[in-house]
C-alpha cells in the first residue's frame, strides 16, 4: 500500500472537488443517480462479481451458524445466554469485514469512474478561443435560399475594464446575482430552482445556471437537456472557477454569448442595435442589452418590441433592487425612449423565416441551428410570397386616407396545412414596428368567426333553412347593463333562414344561435377545429364569442378554417417539409396526414353558404369583391368594434377532380397600436377584401373555375325558400319543409 501513497496525494484535491460536485448533484432528480450508477457498473464488473460471491458465502455461512444455534434452542430450553453472544459476535465479525470490503470496492469504482468522466470533458482552454460552426440554410419549397443562420461572423472581443459599469452591473443583476460569491454553481439560487421546475412542474431539465455555467454551456457543450449534460456543465463550471478569476469569466461571457441575429458578444450587439461601441452605451441601453441573452428572439426589438421593453424594465428594476443604481437613475432610465438602428440583414420573407427559426430553436436548440449546418426545406412558395407583399403594399397605399397603417396575409394549402406565404406586417424593415408579426399575434376576428358557430348549429340539428328571429333582443347580465346585440347595418330583418343570416353576417341571429348551442360547447368545438386559446369561455366572453369577442391568431385560425374547407379533416398549419443534417441525411420529414373531427356534410353546407353570392347580396350587393360566381370560392369577412380589425378569410372548395388547386387566404388590415380605422371603411368592399380578391386571382389558376364542386354522399338537395335549391344533411330535410313561416326579406336574385 505504501507505493500508492504518492498517487493518493495527487488525487486528494481531485477527489475532494469531485465529492463536492456529486454531493450537489444528489438533488438533480433520481436520474442523476442512475447515470452515475450506470457509469460505475460499466467500469467495475469484476469487482461487483467478487462482491456478489463474497455476499453469497457470507450469507450462507451466517444462515448455517444461526440455524445451528436456533436448533439447539429448540432442543434445549435452558440454552445459556452465551449462545446468543456467540451468534452476535459471529455476525459482527462477518459484517465488519463485509463493510470494509464493500466500501473499498465502492472507492475503487468511484475513482475509476471519476477519472473516466473527467477525461471525457471538453478542454477548458477552448473558452479562450472560438470554433466556428456550419451555417443553417432555410429554403422555400422550390429550393430558393431565404436565409442563412450562422453563429459567428460578427464578433469583436473587448476588455472588461473598457466597458461601462452599467453593462457588468446589469448582466450580474439579471443573470447571476451571486456571481462573485459562488464557486461556479449556485446551489440555493440555481440548482434548487431547477429541481423545483423538474419535480413540481415536470418540465424538461431546466436551467438554474450561473454565468459560469452559461459560458461553458454555450462554448463547450451540446444543447440537449439531459442529466449527463447538466453534470458536465456543473463540473466544468467549477473547474473554470479554479482556472480563471471572476473578471476573466465575466469578460469571456460578455464576448461570447448571443445577443440576437449575427451579434455575438456585447460589442457587436451594441453596434447592431444602437450603432455605437459598447463602451459608449447608456444605462438604458445597457439594461436592454443585458436582457437579451436569455431569449434573443423573444426580446428582439424588431420582432417583439413590447416584450423587449418589458424585459428592459425588468433588468432596470433588478439593478435598482440590488443597489447598483439609485432610484433617481432608475426613474430616469425608464423614461428614455430607445432608438434602434435599422436592421441591415439580407433576408427574403423575413416574418416567415424568423417564425421558422423559432420553431427550429424550440426543437433543436439555438446552438445546433447556428452551428449544425442544417438544410431546412420549408413550405413557402416565394413566388406567392412576393405577390402577397406587393399586393399588400399597393393596397395599403390606397387606404392611407382611412387611417389603415398596417396589414398581414397568411396563405396556406388546407389539404396539407402548408404555409405558402406569410406577410406579418407591411414592411419587416420598418424601424418602428415592421418586424412585428401580426400572423402570430392575438387579434379579435369579428364576424369571421361566425362560420364556426353555424357549423356547430348544423351538427346540433339546425339546417340551412332554419328560420332565426332577427329582431331587437336583450339579455340580462347580472351586475352589468343588459346585452343588446345590433346588426352591422343598424337594422333588423325579421325571420331569416340560417343561410341568409350567415351570408349577410347578421349579428342577432348569430347570438341567438350561440345561445342555443352553448358558449362552452362552441369553445370546445373550436378547439377540435384548431383554435386552442379559448379557456373558460362562458365567463370570459359570453355570447359575444360569436361576434369575435375572443382573440385568435392567424395560425390557429387558418387551421380551423382549413378543417372546414377539408370537410372535417384537421390538418394543422405547418411550415417545414423536411430537414437534412450537414451530410445530407434527412432528420425530419413532415408526415402529418391529419385526422377527421367531424363528418363531411355540415362543413360542406357552410362552404356552400359562404360561396352563395345571391344570399349575401342583401348586405354586400351583387358585385362585391367577394363574388367569384359559380360557387367555387367560399369567403367570410369580419370587422371589430370601432373598426380596429378588418378581416377577409376565404378558400377554394374541394372539386370532383381534386386538382390540388386548394388555397386558403387570410387578410387582416388595421393598426398595430389598435387605434380605430376611419368609419368610412366598409367591410367587404374596402379594407381587406380587395387585397384578398387580388391574391386569389393571382394564385388560383383559371382552369380551376371550370371545375365542379364535390358534394358528399350524405347531402341531399331540396327546393326551399324563394324557389331556390337548399342542401340538407340527410335525415334533417323532413324537419325543414320550407312551408309555414315565410322569411321577412326577399333577396335580390
UniProtKB/TrEMBL annotation:
Superkingdom, natural source: Bacteria
One of the record's GO cellular component terms: outer membrane-bounded periplasmic space
Location relative to the cell: Cell membrane
Reaction equation(s) it catalyzes: Preferential cleavage: (Ac)2-L-Lys-D-Ala-|-D-Ala. Also transpeptidation of peptidyl-alanyl moieties that are N-acyl substituents of D-alanine; [GlcNAc-(1->4)-Mur2Ac(oyl-L-Ala-gamma-D-Glu-L-Lys-D-Ala-D-Ala)](n)-di-trans,octa-cis-undecaprenyl diphosphate + beta-D-GlcNAc-(1->4)-Mur2Ac(oyl-L-Ala-gamma-D-Glu-L-Lys-D-Ala-D-Ala)-di-trans,octa-cis-undecaprenyl diphosphate = [GlcNAc-(1->4)-Mur2Ac(oyl-L-Ala-gamma-D-Glu-L-Lys-D-Ala-D-Ala)](n+1)-di-trans,octa-cis-undecaprenyl diphosphate + di-trans,octa-cis-undecaprenyl diphosphate + H(+)
GO molecular function, one term: serine-type D-Ala-D-Ala carboxypeptidase activity
Domain Glycosyl transferase family: 143-319
A Pfam family of this chain: Transpeptidase
Major location category of this protein: membrane
UniProt keyword annotations, A-Z: Carboxypeptidase, Cell membrane, Cell shape, Cell wall biogenesis/degradation, Glycosyltransferase, Hydrolase, Membrane, Multifunctional enzyme, Peptidoglycan synthesis, Protease, Transferase, Transmembrane, Transmembrane helix
TM stretches of this protein: 21-41, 86-111
GO biological process entries: cell wall organization; peptidoglycan biosynthetic process; proteolysis; regulation of cell shape
Keyword Transferase: yes
Positions of the Penicillin-binding protein transpeptidase domain: 407-653
Family per record: In the C-terminal section; belongs to the transpeptidase family.
Official protein name in the record: Penicillin-binding protein
Gene source species: Candidatus Roizmanbacteria bacterium CG10_big_fil_rev_8_21_14_0_10_39_6
UniProt lineage: Bacteria, Candidatus Roizmaniibacteriota
Amino acid at each position: 500500500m505504501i507505493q500508492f501513497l504518492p498517487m493518493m496525494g495527487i488525487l486528494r484535491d481531485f477527489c475532494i472537488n469531485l465529492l463536492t460536485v456529486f454531493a450537489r448533484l444528489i438533488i438533480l432528480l433520481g436520474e442523476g443517480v442512475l447515470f452515475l450508477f450506470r457509469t460505475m457498473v460499466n467500469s467495475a464488473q469484476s469487482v461487483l462479481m467478487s462482491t456478489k460471491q463474497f455476499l453469497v458465502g457470507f450469507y450462507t455461512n451466517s444462515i448455517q451458524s444461526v440455524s445451528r444455534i436456533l436448533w439447539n434452542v429448540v432442543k434445549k430450553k435452558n440454552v445459556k445466554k452465551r449462545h446468543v453472544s456467540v451468534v452476535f459476535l459471529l455476525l459482527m465479525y462477518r459484517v465488519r469485514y463485509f463493510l470494509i470490503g464493500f466500501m473499498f470496492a465502492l472507492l475503487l469504482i468511484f475513482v475509476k469512474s471519476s477519472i473516466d468522466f473527467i477525461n471525457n470533458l471538453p478542454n477548458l482552454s477552448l473558452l479562450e478561443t472560438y470554433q466556428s460552426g456550419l451555417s443553417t440554410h432555410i429554403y422555400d419549397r422550390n429550393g430558393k435560399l431565404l436565409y442563412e443562420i450562422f453563429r459567428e461572423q460578427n464578433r469583436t472581443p473587448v476588455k472588461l475594464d473598457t466597458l461601462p459599469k452599467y453593462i457588468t452591473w446589469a448582466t450580474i443583476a439579471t443573470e447571476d446575482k451571486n456571481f462573485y460569491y459562488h464557486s461556479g454553481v449556485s446551489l440555493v439560487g440555481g440548482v434548487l430552482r431547477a429541481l423545483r421546475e423538474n419535480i413540481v412542474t415536470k418540465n424538461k431539465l431546466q436551467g438554474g445556471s450561473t454565468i459560469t455555467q452559461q459560458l461553458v454551456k454555450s462554448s463547450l457543450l451540446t444543447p440537449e437537456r439531459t442529466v449527463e449534460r447538466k453534470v458536465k456543465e456543473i463540473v466544468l463550471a467549477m473547474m473554470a472557477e479554479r482556472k480563471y478569476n471572476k473578471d476573466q469569466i465575466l469578460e469571456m461571457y460578455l464576448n461570447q454569448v448571443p445577443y440576437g441575429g449575427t451579434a455575438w458578444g456585447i460589442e457587436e450587439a451594441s453596434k447592431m442595435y444602437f450603432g455605437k461601441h459598447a463602451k459608449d452605451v447608456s444605462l438604458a441601453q445597457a439594461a436592454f442589452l443585458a436582457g437579451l441573452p436569455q431569449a434573443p428572439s423573444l426580446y428582439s426589438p424588431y420582432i417583439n418590441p413590447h416584450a423587449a421593453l418589458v424585459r428592459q424594465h425588468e433588468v432596470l428594476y433588478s439593478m435598482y433592487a440590488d443597489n447598483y443604481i439609485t432610484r433617481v437613475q432608475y426613474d430616469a432610465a425608464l423614461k428614455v425612449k430607445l432608438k434602434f438602428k435599422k436592421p441591415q440583414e439580407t433576408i427574403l420573407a423575413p416574418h416567415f423565416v424568423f417564425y421558422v427559426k423559432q420553431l427550429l430553436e424550440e426543437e433543436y436548440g439555438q446552438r445546433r441551428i447556428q452551428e449544425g449546418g442544417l438544410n431546412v426545406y420549408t413550405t413557402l412558395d416565394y413566388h406567392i410570397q412576393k405577390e402577397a407583399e406587393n399586393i399588400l403594399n399597393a393596397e395599403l397605399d390606397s387606404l392611407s386616407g382611412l387611417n389603415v397603417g398596417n396589414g398581414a396575409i397568411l396563405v396556406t394549402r388546407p389539404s396539407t396545412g402548408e404555409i405558402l406565404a406569410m406577410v406579418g406586417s407591411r414592411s419587416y424593415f420598418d424601424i418602428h414596428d415592421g418586424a412585428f408579426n401580426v400572423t402570430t399575434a392575438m387579434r379579435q376576428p369579428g364576424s369571421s368567426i361566425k362560420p364556426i358557430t353555424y357549423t356547430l348549429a348544423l351538427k346540433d340539428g339546425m339546417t340551412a333553412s332554419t328560420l332565426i328571429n332577427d329582431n331587437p333582443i336583450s339579455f340580462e347580465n347580472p351586475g352589468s347593463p343588459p346585452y343588446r346585440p345590433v346588426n352591422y347595418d343598424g337594422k333588423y330583418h325579421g325571420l331569416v333562414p340560417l343561410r341568409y343570416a350567415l351570408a349577410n353576417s347578421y349579428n342577432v341571429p348569430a347570438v341567438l344561435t350561440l345561445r342555443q348551442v352553448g358558449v362552452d360547447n362552441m369553445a370546445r368545438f373550436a378547439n377540435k377545429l384548431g383554435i386552442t386559446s379559448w379557456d373558460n369561455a362562458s365567463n370570459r366572453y359570453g355570447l359575444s364569442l360569436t361576434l369575435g369577442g375572443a382573440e385568435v391568431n392567424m395560425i390557429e385560425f387558418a387551421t380551423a378554417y382549413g378543417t372546414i374547407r377539408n370537410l372535417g379533416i384537421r390538418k394543422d398549419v405547418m411550415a417545414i417539409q423536411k430537414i437534412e443534417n450537414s451530410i445530407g441525411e434527412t432528420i425530419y420529414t413532415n408526415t402529418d396526414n391529419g385526422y377527421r373531427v367531424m363528418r363531411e356534410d355540415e362543413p360542406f353546407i357552410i362552404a356552400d353558404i359562404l360561396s352563395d353570392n345571391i344570399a349575401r347580396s342583401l348586405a354586400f350587393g351583387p358585385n362585391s369583391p367577394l363574388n367569384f360566381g359559380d360557387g367555387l370560392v367560399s369567403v367570410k369577412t369580419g370587422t371589430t368594434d370601432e373598426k380596429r380589425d378588418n378581416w377577409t378569410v376565404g378558400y377554394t372548395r374541394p372539386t370532383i377532380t381534386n386538382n390540388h388547386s386548394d388555397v386558403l387566404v387570410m387578410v387582416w388590415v388595421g393598426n398595430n397600436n389598435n387605434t380605430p380605422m376611419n368609419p368610412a371603411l366598409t367591410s367587404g368592399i374596402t379594407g381587406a377584401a380587395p387585397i384578398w380578391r387580388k391574391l386569389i386571382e393571382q394564385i388560383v389558376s383559371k382552369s380551376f373555375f371550370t371545375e365542379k364542386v364535390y358534394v358528399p354522399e350524405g347531402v341531399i338537395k331540396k327546393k326551399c325558400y324563394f324557389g331556390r335549391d337548399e342542401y340538407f344533411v340527410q335525415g334533417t330535410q323532413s324537419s325543414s319543409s320550407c312551408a309555414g313561416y315565410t322569411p321577412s326579406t326577399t333577396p335580390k336574385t
